[in-house]
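Many introductory courses stop at the sequence. We go one step further.
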Amino acid sequence: MDSRSRIAFAFLILVQAAHSVEECVFRLFDVFGPARWVSGLVSANLPLGFALANACIVLFGVWCYWARVRPSHPSARVYAWLWAFVELGNGISHVFFSLLRGEYFPGVATAPLLFATSCYLIYKLLARHESNAMKW
């Protein structure tokens, strides 16, 4: 992966951290059943369970960056593609639920950043793939 792809990946994890904070502060687990279910799996205290689950997601992203993406591990592109598509879906779904409800939905404020950063990362991953294909 090139340096811009690595930076885009790191920024995506940073945006996910901000997104997680927004979801926690505005209590996504109170309005979204799957978030409530995951929170309950982690702790009987739903706010704590949700915060811990989100912390694990962000920590996994940090690990992916430091252990796979940053050192250009052979699996780096796989991790980058997975994160890009998951976060693209995350961004789209928050906007969708906000429009469906006709009001603010926790996470929708940072959703456009998830969407844009994911799209940029996908663009960089595709551009790198095409430049490699052209060498043949």
